[in-house]
Design a protein that fits this description.
Blueprint (H helix, E strand, L loop, with lengths): L1 H15 L10 H10 L3 E8 L4 E7 L2 E7 L5 E4 L1
Antiparallel strand pairs: 1-2, 2-3, 3-4
């Protein structure tokens, strides 16, 4: 269930960025991108009109993230 949600969210980002579905991020690529930015415990991945929302942890504190259509990772308040 979670895999298909993450795949759909990655596909949404790729399509919103004007890429074909062949260039969509896989679940592993999306999580790896977020982890490479210094986040851990990535969960609750959801596709929204703004992009992909994610709950994660950074420096021991829970954070909410938004991955926009250009692939930028932003912390939300």
């Amino acid at each position: 269930m979670q895999t298909s949600t993450i795949y759909r969210a990655a596909l949404f980002v790729a399509l919103a960025a004007g890429l074909s579905p062949a260039y969509a991020l896989t679940q592993e690529e999306l999580v790896a991108k977020i982890q490479a930015a210094g986040y851990s415990q990535v969960q609750d991945v959801k596709s929204t009109a703004e992009g992909i929302t994610v709950n994660a942890v950074k420096d021991g504190k829970p954070v909410k993230l938004l991955v926009d259509s250009s692939g930028q990772i932003k912390e939300r308040n």
